[in-house]
Structure formats: structure tokens, C-alpha cells
């Protein structure tokens, strides 16, 4: 007799694979600002540049990412933002993606997190807990550090190519 294969496992899979920390944050901020045009104005970039960042066709510069996090943090401090903003994988595990990389736990290197307080909406100021080792990290610190790491590696990569040419 054939054993049933468990294909109903979801959890981390509820996070769409195309979704990166940049596209997630940009999508949320565009919602607060009312439109992508309004967000593009706030970030001082043309709307088509913003569109490329949102679709992942171009990597968002760190400076623009910091500015974006500031906009989201400002919004989160408003009382009506109580529903939570970056609450995409509300039930399951959280992972944070840029291109093909995932943010890793600073303690153990695993890349699945859960909210430290599952009753609270996910905000930049939220504490996250590593699913593997239980280490806690602030959401904003984790994604900021991760964006810096990825940007550092891609810059080094670009630099090496440039030298070789
Ligand atoms: Zn860990």
C-alpha cells in the first residue's frame, strides 16, 4: 500500500517566492502613500524607476531603502496603523529574501523566523524569533543588515568584473 505523501504543508510557502524585502516594503509604502506615483515623489525617483524596483528588475539602492524604512516606520507610529503593515505571512514562518539570498539568523545561520509575539501585527519594530535556535532579533535591524550584506557583495562582484575588463 502506498503511503500518503503530505502535500498539504504550507507555512513558509505562503510567502510568494518572487516577493523580496524590497518589493514587500515598496508595496506597503505605496499603499500608505495612496499610489506608486506618490511614493516615487517621496523617494525622489521617477515612477518607472520605482516600478523596476518593485518588480525586482533593478536592485534598490541602500539609501533609498533606508528612506523607505523611515517612511514605513513613520506610518507605523500613527495610531491608525494598528492593523500592522508588513503582515504578509500572518500565520506562518517568515523569511526575508533579496534575489536568491535569505536573511540569516546571526546566531545559527538559519533563515526562518516567527514573530516573538504572534498576537501582535508585524511591524518594523517587531521582535522576531529564529525558529531553529530561538535567538531574537528586531525586524528592522535584520532586514537592514541583510540589505547591506547583499549590497556589499554585489558591489564587490561588480568591482571585480570591472577590474577584469
Ligand atoms: Zn538561529
Report on the structure:
The protein has one domain (16-164). It is 44% helix and 8% strand. The protein is built from 5 helices and 5 strands. It has helices spanning 21-33, 36-43, 47-55, 62-77, 139-164, and strands spanning 97-98, 101-102, 113-115, 127-130, 136-138. A hairpin with a 5-residue loop joins strand 4 (127-130) and strand 5. It is globular. The termini are far apart. Zinc ion binds next to loops.
Which helices and strands, and how do they pair?
Layout: H1 21-33, H2 36-43, H3 47-55, H4 62-77, E1 97-98, E2 101-102, E3 113-115, E4 127-130, E5 136-138, H5 139-164
Antiparallel strand pairs: 1-2, 3-4, 4-5
Helix pairs in contact: 1-2, 1-3, 1-4, 2-3, 4-5
The protein binds zinc ion.
Short description:
By secondary structure, this protein is mostly helical.
- The helix/strand series, from N terminus to C terminus, equals HHHHEEEEEH
Question: Whole-Å distance between the termini?
Answer: 61 Å
Proportion of residues in helical segments: 40-55%
- Strand tally is 5
Low-confidence stretches: 1-17
Mean pLDDT: 82
The domain count comes to: 1
Amino acid at each position: 500500500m502506498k503511503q500518503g505523501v503530505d502535500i498539504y504543508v504550507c507555512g513558509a510557502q505562503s510567502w510568494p517566492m518572487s516577493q523580496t524585502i524590497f518589493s514587500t516594503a515598496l508595496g506597503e509604502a505605496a499603499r500608505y502613500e495612496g499610489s506608486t506615483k506618490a511614493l516615487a515623489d517621496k523617494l525622489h525617483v521617477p515612477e518607472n524607476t520605482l516600478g523596476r524596483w518593485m518588480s525586482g528588475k533593478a536592485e534598490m539602492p541602500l539609501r533609498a531603502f533606508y528612506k523607505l524604512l523611515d517612511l514605513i516606520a513613520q506610518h507605523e507610529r500613527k495610531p491608525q496603523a494598528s492593523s500592522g503593515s508588513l503582515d504578509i505571512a500572518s500565520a506562518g514562518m517568515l523569511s526575508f529574501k533579496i534575489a536568491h539570498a535569505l536573511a540569516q539568523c546571526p546566531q545559527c545561520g538559519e533563515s526562518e523566523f516567527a514573530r516573538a509575539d504572534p498576537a501582535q501585527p508585524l511591524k518594523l519594530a517587531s521582535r522576531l524569533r529564529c525558529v531553529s535556535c530561538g535567538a531574537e532579533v528586531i525586524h528592522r535591524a535584520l532586514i537592514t543588515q541583510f540589505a547591506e550584506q547583499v549590497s556589499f557583495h554585489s558591489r564587490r562582484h561588480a568591482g571585480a568584473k570591472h577590474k577584469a575588463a
